Amino acid sequence: MGHEVTLVWRDGREATIEVANGESVIDATEREGLGVPFGCLYGACGTCTGRLIEGDLVHVERPRGLKPSHRNEGYVLLCVAEPRSDCRVEVGATVQADLVPNPWK
Ligand code: FES
């Protein structure tokens, strides 16, 4: 038995998927063909950044691509994250863009 993870895109789209025990959220989104962005798949590049809205999602490997302050704000790297309860997670390329310093803002 795994957990249900509801993915929430900023355009209002939502999808709920089952993430198996021992499966990363990204692996589950790939299995379902949902097109959540990813790159390295080992927690370094930050491409798969999401933001935990609700629930318990743990990093099973060190999320090197996230600063501690971002982790405190709820950002997660979905390629090395596994749910420990049902969760809601904000996903999509614009979530990672939150973390990139923008000199024009
Ligand atoms: S895909 Fe690179 S950090 Fe997740």
Task: Explain what the structure shows.
By secondary structure, the protein is of the alpha+beta class. It is globular and about 45 Å long. It has helices spanning 25-31, 68-72, 93-97; strands spanning 3-9, 14-19, 49-54, 57-59, 75-77, 81-83, 87-91. It has a five-stranded mixed sheet. Strands 4-6 form a two-stranded antiparallel ribbon. It is 16% helix and 31% strand. The structure holds FE2/S2 (inorganic) cluster.
Strand content: 25-35%
Number of extended strands: 7
Question: What's the number of helices?
Answer: 3
Structural class: alpha+beta
Helix share bin? 10-25%
Distance between the termini: 44 Å
Structural key phrases:
3 helices; alpha+beta; binds FE2/S2 (inorganic) cluster; 105 residues; five-stranded mixed β-sheet
Task: Describe the structure concisely for a colleague.
The protein has 105 residues and is an alpha+beta fold.
Helix-strand layout with pairing:
Blueprint: E1 3-9, E2 14-19, H1 25-31, E3 49-54, E4 57-59, H2 68-72, E5 75-77, E6 81-83, E7 87-91, H3 93-97
Parallel strand pairs: 1-7
Antiparallel strand pairs: 1-2, 3-5, 3-7, 4-6
The structure holds FE2/S2 (inorganic) cluster.
